[in-house]
Amino acid sequence: MSRAWIALGGNLGNREQLFAESLLGLEQSSSVKIVRGSPVYQTPAVGPGSQEDYWNAVVEVETSLSPKDLLDLCLETEIALGRIRRERWGPRLIDLDLLLYEDQEISEQNLSIPHPRLHQRGFVLMPLADLTADHVVRGKSISDWLKEANCSGIVQIKDSVLS
Predict the structure, then answer these.
(1) H/E stretch holding 155
(2) pLDDT at residue 75 greater than cutoff 80
(3) Domains identified in the chain, total number
(4) What is the pLDDT of residues 128-155, one digit of tens each?
(5) What's 66-117 look like in SS3?
(6) Which residue among 5, 70, 121, 130 has the highest number of C-beta atoms inside a 10 angstrom radius?
(7) pTM, whole model, 2 decimals?
(8) Degrees (nearest 5) of the Cα angle 96, 124, 78?
(9) What is the pLDDT of residues 76-85, one digit of tens each?
(10) For residue 20, what are the domain limits?
(11) Is 152 contained in some domain?
(12) Closest CA to 102 of 69, 66, 77, 126
């Protein structure tokens, strides 16, 4: 079994329900077990137009799926919950991003691990640091990247995405 970290985000609909259904969708695969979950954070929207605040969290999973198959499961889960990709950084019901898969570095057309903008996003680094602060990405630990990130306006709203 391999360890991977998946980010959850969304700013439309019933976010609490969508997060819970996302986790169920991931665990419906007998090849994925959610090990731990971060707190849930509310984050100011980044992107076009006026948008509602986002909810963000990260889950750590054990999986026997390959990185590509785990990404496919994330995308299938999004679609099953009604995600339609319209505009980059636009509002969304749910977003599941494969952030890390063990210590692997993969750069393929539809798969980049670590996630290419992970180290620039406080809303990803904060919940990720709750689970794996010492994990090294691009030569620095998650906690060191977090020290450099813009985290203004990010507030914890739930103790765990799993509850």
Answers:
(1) strand 155-158
(2) yes
(3) 1
(4) 999 999 999 999 999 999 999 999 999 9
(5) CHHHHHHHHHHHHHHCCCCCCCCCCCCCCEEEEEEECCCCEEECCEEECCCC
(6) 5
(7) 0.94
(8) 10
(9) 999 888 766 6
(10) 2-158
(11) yes
(12) 66
pLDDT at 50 exceeding the cut of 90: no
Distance CA 74, CA 149 (A): 26
Give the rounded percent of residues in the chain with a pLDDT score beyond 90: 81
Give the dihedral sign, CA 21/99/2/147.
negative
Query: Which amino acids are annotated catalytic?
Result: 83, 92, 95, 97
Residues 6+ apart with CB under 8 A from 67: 4, 98, 101, 104, 106, 111, 113
163 falls within a domain: no
For residue 57, what are the CA distances in angstroms to 42, 43, 116, 118, 131? 9, 10, 18, 13, 10
> Does residue 22 belong to any structural domain of this protein?
yes
pLDDT at 49: 67
CATH number of 113's domain: 3.30.70.560
Structural tokens at position 56: 């963000």
